[in-house]
């Protein structure tokens, strides 16, 4: 295989897992090196062939069996109602053994109560001391994203064609979001829908990255200033927010932050 | 039936991914099913020791450990079993991992071409385990290198090189297999 210096980096390169400086240097190299360009393309192809397999389907009934096993285990390790395990005659000798358990249980409850108090006072404190607007917005964005995943389909207009999705928003929202199908970049457009964020109607573009759904919410920004992308994390979900051309975008997904951060450049 | 516990809320959404991982490590649906059940039970019992790091890598690491332990004992058992049970290409389930291709065509089959899809499954199944696991976690689950390192108990650099070698191997195998297949068809 020719061009040995770089071939071992190409796999991480196509995943966007190289440090920025190395990524940039390799991009420059690939432009001039047809061997590396071809190999990168082949690796991409191999990668998408495997990801195209999808998950192995779950055996029928496994989900049910898992729930049942866990429920049974909980019953047994749970409260004092452990009749199945303790034979009636042996109850009194083993009864003492529960006492430390009860004490531990009480301590645990006390700890939980204490933490709850602490959290609620923290929440009050944070409500009183500003920075809550962004927080509430992030919470709302995440809720909208999760809501869309719970429904049968996260989209109202299903189309991978930007020319179908963009006009669909006309008359439904007071702006025109940028809609692009990014299937070549690995972010196929599934479609769009309307949603509500912080009490206002917003457009939502739904993209897919492998098995992950990405909701890109869009609404008119208050003023005309551009804001460069800012990333935040909430409950393990990444939220990327930016403003361009008078429209504020917020992308929400559980996909890797680096993959989410490619979106503003692509859109 | 009591309301789902916190553990169930966290763990059950990962059951498909857990089964998929166990399946590709064990290359048997029946074994993968056992492994997932045992892993979830172990995870549930160890949940007290889970200290709010990320849940998914924690759970997947358990699935992986249980699967490998199972694989080890299965291999030991296979060594003791009489020689005529060990037909080449067959595991002791009576199933053959050479028939690892799914029985029923799915929507993706039609898109990718059934033959190619079977070849991809076969090529992946033949990949050495150390490469197979990172390829599955990356390509099918879409996880980042840091999380894969956490699950496999290695460092990001190792994930990077294993994934690179795994993909190179797959690429070669697929080129060979698909080439051969096409020439057959012609």
From TrEMBL, chain B:
UniProt record similarity statement: Belongs to the sigma-70 factor family. ECF subfamily.
Keyword presence, Zinc: no
One Pfam family linked to the record: Sigma70_r2
Annotated keywords: Sigma factor, Transcription, Transcription regulation
Residues of the RNA polymerase sigma-70 region domain: 14-76
Protein name: RNA polymerase subunit sigma
GO molecular function: DNA binding; sigma factor activity
The organism of origin for this protein: Bosea vaviloviae
Signal peptide range in chain numbering: none
PANTHER family, per database record: RNA POLYMERASE ECF-TYPE SIGMA FACTO, RNA POLYMERASE SIGMA FACTOR
Superkingdom in the source lineage: Bacteria
